[in-house]
Amino acid sequence: MKGRVAVIGGGPAGMMAAWTLAPSVQVVLYEQGRSLGRKFLVAGEGGLNLTNRASGPALVQGYSPIGFMRPYVEDFGSEELREWLKQLGIPTYVGSSGRVFPDRGIKPVEVLNAIRTALLERGVRVHLQHRFVGFDERGAPVMESAGVKAAVEAEAVMFALGGASWSVTGSDGAWLPHFAALGVATLPFRPSNCGVEVALGGSLGAHAGKPLKNVAVSVGEVRARGEFTITAYGLEGNVIYPLVPFIREALHRDRAAWLEVDLKPDLTEERIQQRVQDTAWKERAAALRLDRPSMAFFKAFTPVHRYLDGNCWANDLKHVRVPVTALRSVEEAISTVGGIALSEVDQDLSLRAHPSFFVAGEMLDTDAPTGGFLLQGAFAMGRAAANGILARLQLGRQY
Fold this sequence. Notes:
By secondary structure, the chain is α+β, with helices and mostly antiparallel strands. It is built from 14 helices and 21 strands. 33% of the residues lie in helices and 25% in strands. The strands form 5 sheets. It has a 7-stranded antiparallel sheet with strand order 17-16-13-14-15-12-18. A 6-stranded mixed sheet has the order 6-2-1-10-21-20, with helices on one face.
């Protein structure tokens, strides 16, 4: 079987799709930037979190909607991704938090170079600085490079254009109206895995940039543990990001959302009471090992009379209520939701109204937390879309 397939978008989903397709078809990979995987590299600046050691149901639970994402991450999960990277010369290790990284000493650019080399070795033709600018009158994708526009000629096209966050990497969501004009139902982009805006009372603003570690944060019945950082606008960090979907829903539904912070999740109320009982006010923080940022946070969101009354601390330290006024912008978010509505997509990731077009990655209205789930999902969907294309070409289906 030989045919020509275009992959538009050189991020994780696009690169995986091109690699999967290349042994069977001629692949042309278009990327609007000067290099492949720019957002991939930006994400790796603080340590390239490739996937998560979770597997099976534990991995699937990280995605929303679970039913939509289940077949892709079950077919190509964390173990399969790590094995693929190992084949490319990138061994990995599991960190203490369950996140998976390249072996120590391997830089993000080396991971990207290994994938790029594998693509070229498989015969993938890579066209850089080619930007998708819409569809022509026949419905064919149009690419622009150096001011010249040309329609893509291919038996199938796989789009992996990303979402709308971190536009400096090319992930600007500018493709959305082009698909809407084609008759594909789309949803506006909204932030995910982002900070939350909170009115910082008292002296809390003076602690901007400082973390509160080993805390638990709840939104309704949903609870997460980790740490957050006080910022000039509010809070951000790995304990906040998994809660953003629930905060976003509450803000949309009620125009208000509340975080409940447990500053001492490893201590019961009884144990806290024992430690502060019969202690002077200035000794309570030391008795509970609360640092200055934690004390400032506690004070900012606790009524003064309760803050001064040691008998209230056992309850209040475990139930600090924090009002959230907004999420941070799409531009600042690590990822976005919105894009192409899932009702438009078949299980093989083809568009129902345009079956020669396949879509994957952050273009789709799916969600996942940080911790390796985002990249894992993109790689898995890229592979699934490529297999969907191969299955259709093998069957000789007419588009």
